[in-house]
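Researcher: I need the complex structure. Ligand is 2-hydroxyethylsulfonic acid. Inputs:
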Amino acid sequence: MSKIALITGATSGIGEACAHIFAQNGYNLILVARRADRLAKIAHHLEAKYAITTQQVLADIREKENLNKAFEAIPAEWKKVDVLINNAGLSQGLDPIDKGNTDDWDTMIDTNVKGLLYVTKIVSNWMIPNKSGHIVNIGSIAGQEVYPNGNVYCATKHAVDALSKAMRIDLLQHDIKVTAINPGMVETEFSVVRFKGDAERAKNVYAGLEPLIADDIADAIWYVVSRPKHVNINDMLIMPTAQATATLVNRAG
Ligand code: NDP
Ligand code: 8X3
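Model: Output:
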């Protein structure tokens, strides 16, 4: 029986890249996201290309009741999840605390922290009877440092850092591994989402430097997940060569 990975936020960026590398390595995939057309397209492509099977779960991870129902409906044989990649997340806005949009704050906290927790509660309970499993949480450099106007997004990723440590402690007795992957700048749809569709402003984030791409992060996640059973990589901070800290970048290149 092939292994199973459940990936949240599989319709774009890092989540989609993870779906590819896990499919390439023979995993069957439970793919979670909100955009149905993209989800179906990616799932069908991976099934055809790698001869794997998928389950598409159309869900907003912020909506607890719907999420519980959607996950409950997954067939029993699919609940033997080997790897959970808690990737779905976003930033909204880049404003000082006194000017921040409180709806944006709710969206970030509800998705990056509460949604991640809801998914983890369900899937860790599927892993516990198997006495095995690996949870990979996508944190950020924003969970290691705080930068100007990053306030609430940074707070959510600091929470992911704390929760990764907490999960590692609480799930130790169940032989479940927990890894935090903390990327610096990765060119995905992240900045377009942060700036609410302003593609020009999003592009400027990466102007004059070579950012990471989603495949770089998926590659690291695959490395982490493919270590022997007795080895766990607790966390990884992965930056573009042109980025030293959250805000110090070399745009000369
Ligand atoms: P993308 O915007 O490209 O992808 C985000 C994914 O999350 C999409 O598939 C989106 O799918 C999904 N998603 C967002 N909100 C929800 C929700 N409420 N319910 C379900 N799915 C949701 O960004 P990235 O790939 O860059 O981001 C992935 C993760 O990496 C995030 O947690 C982000 O914070 C983190 N990260 C990104 C960095 C970067 O520079 N890009 C750096 C450090 C960390 P859909 O809209 O279909 O639901
Ligand atoms: C995304 C990276 O630097 O925009 O988590 O916060 S950053």
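Model: Summary of the prediction. Strands lie at 4-8, 28-33, 54-58, 83-86, 133-138, 176-183, 235-238.
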